[in-house]
Amino acid sequence: MRLFINALGFQAAWWACIAGVGQGLEIAALIFCFVLAGLHLCFASQPRQEIRLSALALALGVLTDTLLQMLDVISFYGWTLGPLSPFWLWMLWVMFALTLNTSLAFLKTQPLWISALAGLVFGPITYYAGAKLGAAAFDGSFYHFGALALAWALAMPALIYLAKTPSTLQQGAP
Predict the structure, then answer these.
(1) Treating both helix axes as pointing N-terminal to C-terminal, what angle do 87-97 and 47-70 enclose, rounded to 10 degrees?
(2) So where are the chain's domains?
(3) Where are the alpha helices (DSSP H) in 71-140?
(4) Which residues, in sequence order, are bridge partners of residue 136?
(5) 55-79 in b/e burial notation, b at 16+ Cβ within 10 A?
(6) Which listed residue, of 9, 55, 58, 104, carries a Cα 20 to 30 Å from 158's Cα?
(7) Could you say which DSSP state residue 86 is in?
(8) Would you say the pTM of this structure is higher than 0.85?
(9) Sign of the CA dihedral 145, 150, 154, 160?
(10) Residues 107, 113, 117, CA angle at the centre, nearest 5°?
């Protein structure tokens, strides 16, 4: 049941953020996501590791999405800090990280190429869906899909590696 609730929570966060951008409700979406993240941490067996993994995912996400935006692969709508990706995307990276030890934990038992393949396929689909729902501008060209696929084929195994390597998440680790 916990896995289902975790997956459902991420989907609710995704929809809230995407709809929030389109309907001018970004602040409400961010608050909703903060509440979901807080609830997750309250019930997590190792909340410190979840926070550290989320922080690493956030850094990777801001870098990835900002680079994608700067390369004109996709243009995100919403509140931003200068040239960086918008805040709602930041929150989605955090929320996604909170699935890595719960509903997506099965990926930690698989070879990393499985995670790369999942990122290659599902990353672009998710961005395309978000754009179709009004959260971004995306022309859907082969180049743009390829860039998203490559970004997620690299990001997904990196996140899985971080999730299954507790020593990188422990306080004081180099």
Answers:
(1) 140
(2) 2-169
(3) 87-97, 112-132
(4) 76
(5) ebbbebbbebbbebbeeebbebbbe
(6) 9
(7) P
(8) yes
(9) positive
(10) 85
Q: Quick one: tokens of 65?
A: 């999405």
Q: What is the pLDDT of residues 138-162, one digit of tens each?
A: 998 999 999 999 999 999 999 999 9
pLDDT of residue 174: 45
Distances (CA, A) of 135 to 69, 91, 103, 159, 170: 13, 14, 25, 24, 35
Tokens describing residue 61:
């996400």
CA dihedral 77, 80, 82, 83 (to 10 degrees): -40
Q: Within 13 Å and on the Cβ side, how many CA atoms surround 12?
A: 14
